[in-house]
Amino acid sequence: MKKLLVILGAMSLATTVSISAVACTPKVKEEKRIISKDGESAYEIAVKKGFEGTEDQWLESLVGREGKSVYDIAKENGFKGTPSDWLKTLIGEKGDKGEKGDKGDQGVAGKDGTNGKDGAKGDKGEKGDKGDKGVAGKDGTNGKDGKDGAKGEKGDKGEKGDKGDKGVAGKDANLEDVKKLFDELIKKQEEEVKLLKEKLANLEKENSKINNELLEQRKAKFNAASKIFKEKFNGLKFHSKKDFNEFRDIIDKLIEEFKEKFMGLNFQIREENTELPGEQKRIRLILWKDGVWDQSDSIILNFEH
């Protein structure tokens, strides 16, 4: 039903266009335009009424009684151009200005712009008027005293003065007082020496205490090392009477272990068979200090036949 109304409206419009186009003779090449009330083209009116399609499709639908479209009739009457060009001529006059619309909502505030560069330095201003007289300042501090003036000329010689009173007779030096002073100095020095001796004795006691503590610590560490040493060699038998490196691998590993566990102590482990029967060998653990044996321990191994 909707399409039918569009076709009827278009046919009515086509008839009007055909009449306007026929009124123009082929010799007169003046373009004729169809003007609507609202300044809209015929195609726009057709679309509003429900027509669906392009401008060219709409033109093809405007066919008169003789089977010609209004565009064909316009071309016969002198129009030059495409169907789209012809449609642009079918625009009404500009309509009246519409009423002012309602005020729109306020837009979102824009970001602050970057600060502009400082302007060029202005010219020097004119000299201002002379200011009012200022308030009187406070009195300044007193200045320093001036230097003494130049020495004056020598005065006249004065009169001789009266004879003075006789002074008190002085005492002779007393040897006892000198001896007493000397004895006091000696006594003071002796007291100072005594205090120094007491301090030295205390230091020696403290040093002896520290040495004893260090000695006890060395003994404790040696005893711990000796225990590990005996556990390692206990029950072992040797197989060569003349080879003193038979247990070298065990000895080297033990020495490395003692270095890590007992830092600062110098251990050695030796194989001996001196003053022993040929069937026995001694393995000795030694703790060295200042180039001499400090402590030692040993274990006796038997020969295995």
Note down, in words, how this protein is organized.
Keywords: Coiled coil, Signal. Residues 92-105, 114-170 have a biased composition (Basic and acidic residues). Residues 179-225 form a coiled coil. Residues 92-170 are annotated as: Disordered. InterPro entries: Collagen, Lipoprotein_mollicutes-type_CS. It is a single chain. The protein is α+β, with helices and mostly antiparallel strands and 305 residues long. Among the domains are: 2-88, no CATH class; 225-303, no CATH class. Helices cover 40% and strands 10% of the residues. It contains 7 helices and 4 strands. It has a 4-stranded mixed beta sheet with strand order 1-4-3-2, with helices on one face. A hairpin with a 7-residue loop joins strand 2 (266-272) and strand 3 (280-289). The protein is flat, with a radius of gyration of 68 Å. 10% of the residues are buried.
Rg computed from alpha carbons, rounded to a whole number of angstroms: 68 Å
Structural class: alpha+beta
| Number of helical segments with 4 or more residues | 7
What spatial form do the alpha-carbon principal axes imply?
A: flat
Tell me the total number of β-strands.
4
Would you identify the regions where 5 or more consecutive residues have pLDDT less than 50? 1-35
What would the average pLDDT be, to the nearest integer? 77
What is the rounded distance between the termini?
Answer: 131 Å
Oligomer: single chain
Element-level helix/strand string? HHHHHHEHEEE
How would a crystallographer describe the biggest sheet? Answer: 4 strands, mixed
Beta strand %: 5-15%
Keywords: Coiled coil, Signal
InterPro entries: Collagen, Lipoprotein_mollicutes-type_CS
Pfam families: Collagen
Region (Disordered): 92-170
